[in-house]
């Protein structure tokens, strides 16, 4: 196949998913799931009415969406993420013009156009999440055209297997399932005062007792603390051998992370789940105040941007351990040398079993077994994910441009028909 013959992108379709627990919105789960209905410290838990459930303040309000990109040879790339109808609207009303007709190998060019065209309203958040899913669909398409797994197109295998730690509400179950470590969400924040601090210490002490002295235990603080509270908490738990403290501060509090590192130079602090693009990570990396970076490939800008962030981090010998994202992260981790392991975000309601990260969206999603997966399990074209024909995908065009129930009437300024 010559360069002139290489397939070009001819069509892009977006879908919404019907039902709970399907697709790339981690928090779109059934009531009672540990991810949403446990006490978890978060930026909104300072308000009493929003403490009990993260769905009460709308963490799941956007929902999942999917992107399918078809090339002129009939190949199709597919990816999922979060953003719901808003994401679909952005794809078709703004981004599509930069995608149709392009050579999918020009992923850097496409990414740059999407980012620059949306810079005046984007740069972070939902805009980057949408760009991420488009980018992942392009990589999946490219793998389908070339009949190669994504990890082989971005560097090839750097190891034979990927080892996992598990994030959930039951680190003892994580240990029993074969994961090398377990991460729990902190229940209380600064607005719960010293009683909450004592409850946090007791909570972590109980988990340490349950898993024993040597099993790595990590704590996710979900952007909910401040510097003085973290200092008090770390001091109060120094005998518990916490492996790392994650997302302790507001994502933009770069100076705060510097203060924490100065206070505890031998303690590991991690962040990056809610940071976006290489520009956002530049400060984190150059400051050298965090020990592990945790970008989410479905939010940060997709595979194209994650590879650039990994290169930035490698220059400073800072490990990159992606947040969740299932197979999209696995291909990245397999191909890079500064990615020592991967997170498995427990998708079962009580986090005591291993289920597909994207629910029933795919028929063949790879998941870790006994805490690891072999790289050879990723040896399928693209990201190796087959859409489940039993899952109902709703073409977003029917949501974005519904047909009127009756002909529209044009009225003049006096209220009469024109």
TrEMBL record:
Mandelate racemase/muconate lactonizing enzyme C-terminal domain mapped to chain residues: 171-267
SUPFAM superfamilies assigned: Enolase C-terminal domain-like (SSF51604), Enolase N-terminal domain-like (SSF54826)
Gene3D superfamilies referenced in this protein's UniProt entry, alphabetically: Enolase-like C-terminal domain, Enolase-like, N-terminal domain
InterPro entries: Enolase-like_C_sf, Enolase-like_N, Enolase_C-like, L-Rhamnon_dehydrat, Mandelate_racemase_C, Mandelate_racemase_N_dom, RHMD-like
Pfam families: MR_MLE_C, MR_MLE_N
Cofactor: Mg(2+)
GO-annotated biological processes: carbohydrate catabolic process
Keywords: Magnesium, Metal-binding
GO terms of molecular function: L-rhamnonate dehydratase activity; magnesium ion binding
Superkingdom of origin organism: Eukaryota
PANTHER family according to UniProt: ENOLASE SUPERFAMILY, MANDELATE RACEMASE, MITOCHONDRIAL ENOLASE SUPERFAMILY MEMBER 1
Name recorded for this polypeptide: Mandelate racemase/muconate lactonizing enzyme C-terminal domain-containing protein
Source species: Ogataea polymorpha
Lineage of the species this protein comes from: Eukaryota, Fungi, Dikarya, Ascomycota, Saccharomycotina
């Amino acid at each position: 196949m010559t360069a002139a013959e290489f397939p070009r992108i001819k069509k892009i379709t977006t879908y919404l998913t019907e039902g709970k627990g399907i697709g790339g919105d981690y928090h779109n789960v059934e009531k009672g799931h540990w991810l949403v209905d446990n006490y978890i410290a978060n930026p909104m838990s300072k308000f009493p009415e929003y403490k009990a459930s993260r769905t009460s303040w709308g963490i799941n309000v956007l929902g999942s969406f999917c992107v399918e990109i078809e090339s002129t040879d009939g190949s199709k790339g597919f990816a999922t993420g979060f953003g719901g109808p808003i994401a679909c609207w952005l794809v078709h009303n703004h981004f599509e013009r930069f995608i149709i007709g392009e050579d999918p190998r020009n992923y850097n060019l496409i990414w740059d156009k999407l980012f620059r065209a949306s810079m005046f309203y984007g740069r972070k958040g939902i805009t980057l999440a949408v760009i991420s899913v488009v980018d992942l669909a392009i990589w999946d398409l490219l793998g389908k055209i070339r009949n190669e797994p994504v990890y082989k197109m971005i560097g090839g295998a750097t190891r034979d297997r990927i080892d996992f730690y598990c994030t959930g509400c039951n680190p003892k179950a994580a240990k029993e399932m074969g994961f090398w470590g377990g991460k729990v969400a902190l229940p209380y924040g600064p607005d719960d005062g010293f009683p909450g601090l004592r409850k946090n210490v007791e909570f972590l002490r109980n988990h340490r007792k349950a898993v024993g002295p040597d099993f790595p235990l990590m704590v996710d603080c979900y952007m909910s603390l401040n510097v003085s509270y973290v200092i008090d908490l770390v001091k109060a738990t120094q005998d518990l051998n916490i492996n790392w403290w994650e997302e302790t501060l507001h994502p933009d509090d770069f100076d705060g992370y510097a203060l924490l590192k100065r206070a505890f130079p031998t303690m590991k602090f991690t962040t990056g789940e809610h940071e976006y693009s290489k520009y956002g990570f530049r400060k984190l990396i150059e400051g050298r105040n965090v020990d592990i970076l945790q970008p989410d490939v479905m939010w940060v800008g997709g595979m194209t941007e994650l590879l650039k962030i990994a290169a930035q981090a490698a220059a400073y010998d800072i490990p990159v351990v992606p947040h969740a994202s299932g197979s999209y992260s696995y291909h990245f981790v397999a191909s890079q040398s500064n990615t020592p392991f991967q997170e498995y975000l427990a998708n079962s309601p009580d986090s005591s079993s291993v289920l597909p990260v994207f629910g029933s969206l795919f028929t063949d999603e790879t998941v870790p077994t006994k805490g690891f997966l072999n790289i050879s399990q990723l040896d399928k074209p693209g990201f190796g994910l087959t859409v489940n024909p039993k899952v109902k995908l709703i073409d977003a065009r029917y949501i974005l441009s519904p047909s009127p129930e009756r002909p529209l009437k044009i009225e003049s300024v006096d209220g009469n028909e024109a």
